[in-house]
Amino acid sequence: MKSQGPPNSRSHDFSLADVDLDQTADRKTYDDDLKDIQAALQIIQQAYLHSRDKAVVLFEGWDAAGKGGAIRRLSAPMDPRGFKVWPIGAPRPYFKDRHYLQRFWERLPAKGEIVVFDRSWYGRVLVERVEGFADAAEWQRAYDEITEFERLLCDDGVRIVKIFLHISPEIQMKRFMDRLNEPSKRWKLTADDFRNREKWSDYAVAIEDMVQRTSTRNAPWHVMAANDKRHSRLTALETIRSVLSDGVDLTPRPAADGVREMVEQMLADGTI
């Protein structure tokens, strides 16, 4: 789906109302499929380390939609030498005085790496738009800036997976209260989380605009139901597995030159 229309236009081709939030996964399916997907992701990362492929996975979603839980399941099988997670919050003063994309450049993957963004440059057309941190001219032109930025990355060989986790207001409130009542999770909750709920409809419009305007052939949005965490984790990780493995040789690499012969000789000599 190509970006369409001038910056201040809005298409109704995508609607959050079309996302089926009733989708679920039972415990056995979740446990079995998660294990299989994580094993596949481990093989994919090994292939990237040797092939010098690189990828960006970014997660956006409502507060308490389950981004952190999905990222933890994604991270579990990965070797940290070729895998990084960048949690993105408000820019520090240094970056406030510079183009909003600058702070993301230095976090892009090197060859052989897979990088995950827990929130991303899409803050310009989401929270910055809704909360007024960017003026209308700034967030309106950001659609084209972002699609060009991602086109540049794709042309450089970066695979991009963009995931948005969608939940209902009722589920969000339930998770907020669960966090409030769980000492180990209270740190995730702020007063802004509750205040932002008052702008739910404004955020919904911004999300729909974002998906419509920045979903491209090489970097489409994958919007998935997240009322059920097991379902959303499986769906997100399977999407990542599918995109990152497409066209990649996953055949295990042979031992380095001479290693097998050396070991066989040492075994024959009885030195090991």
What does it look like?
With 272 residues, this protein is of the alpha/beta class. The protein has one domain: P-loop containing nucleotide triphosphate hydrolases (Rossmann fold), CATH 3.40.50.300. Helices cover 47% and strands 12% of the residues. The protein contains eleven helices and five strands, in the order αβαβααβααβαααβαα. The chain has helices spanning 27-51, 67-75, 93-96, 102-105, 127-130, 136-155, 169-181, 191-196, 200-214, 229-245, 259-269; strands at residues 54-61, 83-87, 114-118, 158-166, 221-225. It has a five-stranded parallel β-sheet, with helices on both faces. Helix 1 runs parallel beside helix 10 (229-245). The longest helix has 25 residues, at 27-51. The radius of gyration is 21 Å and the shape is globular. Mean pLDDT is 93; it is low at 1-12.
